[in-house]
Amino acid sequence: MTDAPKENKPKIGRKILTWLGAVGLFLLELIKVLVLAGVTIVLVRYFLFKPFYVKGASMEPNFYDHEYLIIDELTYRFRPPERGEVIVFKYPENPKDFFLKRIVGLPGERVKVAEGKITIYNQEFPEGKILDEPYLVGDITVGEKSTNLGPEQYFVLGDNRANSYDSRRFGAIDKSLIVGRSLFRGWPLNRIEFFKAPTY
C-alpha cells in the first residue's frame, strides 16, 4: 500500500512535462503567427497601401472632410499617374503635410487656366483642348494661370475649385512627391467606393 504513490509519481511527472511541452509548442506557433502577421501588416501598410483621412473641403463634393481612404502606393511603380486620378502627395513647401488633389496636367504639357476653364496643350492637341471635367458639379475654375510642365511634373487641382489651395497657387508638383492614388473609400459606410480615373 505504501509503494503505490511512489509508482504514480513518475507517471504524473511525465504527464505534466508532456502538457508543458504541448503548451510550449502552441505558444511558439502562436508567436510565429503573430510575428508573421505583424511583418505582413507593416509591409502592406508602409509599402503597398496607406490609410488617409480627408481634411478640409477642397475636394467636395467628391470627397468630404473626415472620410477614410485607402491609398494605393504600388501602381505608380509600374505606370505613370494618369489624368483625372485623385492622388495624395507631399506639399512641395512642407513635405510633412499631405494633400489630396486631382491630376489635371501631365508631364510635358502646357496647362492654361482662364475664363473658368482648363485648356491642355500637348502633341495630340497643339492648338489646345478644353478639358471636360464630369466630376465637377457646376463649379468653374477660378483664376488665371499658364504652366509649362517638365518631364516629371504634374498640375493638380481640387474639385472644389473655389475653395482649393492647389497648383494655381504653389505650382506644379514633382512625381517624387506623389505618395499614391486614391483606391478605395472605406468610411462613411454609405459612401464606400472603389475609384477609377474618369474618361475624357
What this model shows, in words?
This protein has two helices and twelve strands, in the order αβββββββββαβββ. The strands form two sheets. Strands 1, 2, 3, 4, 9, 10, 11 and 12 form an eight-stranded antiparallel beta sheet that branches. The longest helix has 45 residues. The chain folds into two domains: 49 residues; 141 residues, Umud Fragment, subunit A (Ribbon), CATH 2.10.109.10. The protein is of the alpha+beta class.
Instruction: Tell me which CATH architecture of the largest domain applies here.
Output: Ribbon
Q: β content, as a range?
A: 25-35%
How would you state the average pLDDT, rounded? 84
Count of domain modules: 2
Query: What would you report as the Rg, rounded to the nearest angstrom?
Result: 28 Å
Helix content: 10-25%
Shape summary: elongated
CATH topology of the largest domain, by name, is: Umud Fragment, subunit A
In CATH, what is the homologous superfamily of the largest domain?
Umud Fragment, subunit A
Q: Determine the structural class based on helices, strands and strand pairing.
A: alpha+beta
Count the E strands: 12
The main pleated sheet reads as:
8 strands, antiparallel
Q: Give the low-pLDDT segments.
A: none
Q: What is the element string, with H for helices and E for strands?
A: HEEEEEEEEEHEEE
CATH domain class name of the largest domain: Mainly Beta
Distance between the termini: 95 Å
Count the helices. How many? 2
List keywords for this structure.
single chain; 200 residues; alpha+beta; Umud Fragment, subunit A; 2 domains; eight-stranded antiparallel beta sheet; four-stranded antiparallel beta sheet; 2 helices; 32% strand; elongated
